């Protein structure tokens, strides 16, 4: 296991290096002078020079890159040019809110997907299977930025059950978590259904049934565990998509996480903060993907011995 | 597996049309394409013409779907918005698929160092989840249709390239390719005439889902104010404008929301139908 872990970590080095390079280059993609765009045309020359020095844009690009890498090694992502706070501190102060929302969304997704996936696989081609397939298609076709306002319209405005936005109590969490979790539930449900259908027809499940176990017990006790392994991979991969999706959901519900911080930074043209947010989300995704791989190899030993 | 001929294509078409969802999806997409093509003729009003006195009005005889905050006709904006969705959906897939074809074929067919470099590049680009990189790119480049296309294609090609690489690697080991090689066909001809035509099924299926993904991504970017520049009637931007008036005028957000949902569902149904008809496994 340790050897597998080390080899996976070694594979990650060029990925992290590439991600950091792309994020570094972002600010250099800005057409024209980034300093002028950030400060506006009315800024005086002294202000521009000061910001150019702060962002180290007055130095050769190779030196800027070396300094960027050096800063990262010590956890220095630069300074937000609006708030003058270190970028990493701003991000870390918002991270718990995003993590809470992502975890709640995962819970919503799993709570919907697992029972529906099992039922539709066990009762294939029944009305329940067709209904689940329809709901999954609906979930896949409904983007966050449409589902969010729809949930607000029904549950906040008409029924008055949940607040339209904000943060602080469990009631604030429900609608954003439903918004982010529904699409993921659809993906997981379809995945679990097809994975379970494949397992149900394997010999060991038939053998369990032949020994007198009821079909339900054979499926739940034997087939389900194995069919969950590929689902877990999708779950891990979707976590990164959840973090990216938080940009839209947090904007709709005024949820004070990294997604909203990213949009606020974009609106303020605070590019060091935009860079920091994008880098942080990408590196979190890389870390979660690694964790998923490791868990997968733990559950299915064939992977690490290949 | 053998090479796919016209008879096989006929069977696929018949199987596809028997899929009720896929046939319904095809009808919706055909209608969407027609609407996008004829939007200037079908629209009752100029999509950007304002009538501030009747802002947020509901459906009426002259404005069938009502009006937005600035009194612009929602039906006209919806019809013109379909052009943006269709252009981004088809444009992104065309660009991504072209790059993906070149990269995937080179990587899968020739292997070696090209393949190694390609896989590492894919790993890097795939570390940016969802539309995160597109958000970052449009944030620095500024909102415009061209920049949306650039941002979505820059990331979109990776999935196609990986899929094409995997398909090419699988097909190139098959017997009919071996015999083409033995008969002295040059590698480029083997790739174009024998390998690619037999690797296409999953690529066609994935492209259909890709159109849906690109439409959602464009609408998402426009929702955030990073997509097509206003006052262009992007469906995503229309939802964003409408969500501030959910209490007094829910139709302003509902109309474009339903349009996006129907369009995305139609492409997803077509994708599902093609996957079943072509017998492509996930």
Distance between the termini of chain B: 18 Å
Number of strands of chain A: 0
Low-confidence spans of chain B: none
Sketch the topology of chain B as an H/E string, one letter per element: HHHHHHHHHHH
Helix content of chain B: over 70%
Largest sheet of chain A: none
The secondary-structure element order of chain A is HHHHHHHHHHHHH
Gross CATH architecture of one domain in chain A: Orthogonal Bundle
- Total number of helical segments of chain B? 11
Helix proportion range of chain A = over 70%
CATH architecture of chain B: Orthogonal Bundle
The best one-word shape of chain B is elongated
Beta fraction of the residues of chain A? Answer: under 5%
CATH class of chain B: Mainly Alpha
**Rg calculated over all Cα atoms of chain A:** 24 Å
CATH topology of chain B: MetI-like fold
Number of helices of chain A: 13
Instruction: Give the termini separation of chain A.
Output: 12 Å
Mean pLDDT of chain B: 92
Strand content of chain B: under 5%
Features:
heterodimer, A: 306 residues, mainly alpha, MetI-like fold, B: 282 residues, 11 helices, 0% strand
Plain-language structure description:
The complex is a heterodimer of chains A (306) and B (282). Chain A has 306 residues and is mainly α. Chain A is built from 13 helices and no strands. Chain A has a domain at 87-299: MetI-like (MetI-like fold), CATH 1.10.3720. Chain A is 79% helix and 0% strand. Chain B is an all-alpha fold and 282 residues long. Chain B has one domain (6-278): Orthogonal Bundle (MetI-like fold). The longest helix of chain B has 37 residues, at 74-110.
List the helices and strands and how they pair.
The complex is a heterodimer of chains A (306) and B (282).
Chain A lengths: L1 H28 L4 H6 L5 H10 L6 H13 L13 H36 L4 H15 L2 H15 L11 H31 L2 H8 L4 H38 L5 H10 L3 H29 L2 H4 L1
Helix pairs in contact in A: 1-12, 5-6, 5-8, 5-10, 5-12, 6-8, 7-8, 7-10, 8-10, 9-10, 10-11, 10-12, 11-12
Chain B lengths: L5 H13 L1 H23 L31 H37 L1 H15 L5 H10 L3 H27 L3 H8 L4 H9 L4 H24 L11 H9 L7 H28 L4
